[in-house]
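Re: your question from the hallway

Yes, I did run it. Sequences:
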Amino acid sequence: MTAIRLHSYFRSSTSVRVRVALELKGLAYDYIAWNLRTNEQCSPDYLDINPQGLVPAIEIDGQVLTQSLPIIEYLDERFPGSPLLPAESMARARVRSLAAMVASDLHPLNNLRVLRYLEAQFGADMAAQTLWFRHWAKATLDPLEMLLAHSTQTGRFCHGDEPSMADICLFAQLLNNRRFDIDNAAWPTLARIHAACVADPAFVKAMPEQQIDAA
Amino acid sequence: MTAIRLHSYFRSSTSVRVRVALELKGLAYDYIAWNLRTNEQCSPDYLDINPQGLVPAIEIDGQVLTQSLPIIEYLDERFPGSPLLPAESMARARVRSLAAMVASDLHPLNNLRVLRYLEAQFGADMAAQTLWFRHWAKATLDPLEMLLAHSTQTGRFCHGDEPSMADICLFAQLLNNRRFDIDNAAWPTLARIHAACVADPAFVKAMPEQQIDAA
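Structure:
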């Protein structure tokens, strides 16, 4: 039995991703909460674990792994049941690319530390932050909708009928959108896939409101 | 012989990444330039290739792949010579995590479309853009320096003595830093690894100034 410790914050989108992966794999884990609102992730105790001061991190076999997608790739290599990537290389590239659209082009621009820095550098108030968040959400979710709606490889989920790393990223992002009152109905394929995720207990267990540190 | 077409912009950091990977793999490719300064990446011709309107994209066997790291993962699976990831899963996770620090936490905040949008939404002039760029460069490169300097797994390159996906991302980022007059000497290990990259003809061939569309 492998002992896994997850360093997490209930509302962190990247933490949601790793929680979904752990749940889909059926892996038990200890949950260690760090409160981003009070900057616990910048405490010396946490910086010893991850000098970047970002959640999530996992500890597995005494090693620390950081960065949500590399963690998910690791879990998928180490625990191959319920695969989170397809077997064939071109299909893997498609799933990784859909995941990266959210993970590299959308979420990094809209997370808490960036919104705070917009306030610090430009005096961005909540209205300006909302404008920023919605701009970058739309910039990625519009083409993502188009790509998914037009591909015969899209099924009940982003790639076929089983959840993958792409669904994990999409799910976490659409949850995040709730905080800025974004109506996901603008992207019917994304909304349909999100509904398929919400129908899966593994995704539900990973939601912010299900965590022990939920406010 | 596989025909590969690369859609690129000479100065695009993510395009540099894919060019280095192609050169390290010894793969020949056709170079198709799209001028980001004149928004050619938003032309209908390019949106037909990549609806996201971002470079790079590659065409291989008639299929389009987008997103630099998924493209590199694909090339590494398809052409296993000169591997860009180690063989062992925990080592792969380390390399992917180092790469993701740059690719998910640094570069997305500092690319051209974001700097332009800071100007559009907040009136950020060049001085404010430089402050922003340097803030996010430091936020990732400080802990990256610490992680690399303190790990026995770091060698001539980020992981051992052969270049990997982590070096590719680091190299492209430090090239990018030049545009904002950032002195990479603040990060001695990163500067040392960058020098090892610059000593490798594959990295040199991928540099912006070597491309046919260099200004």
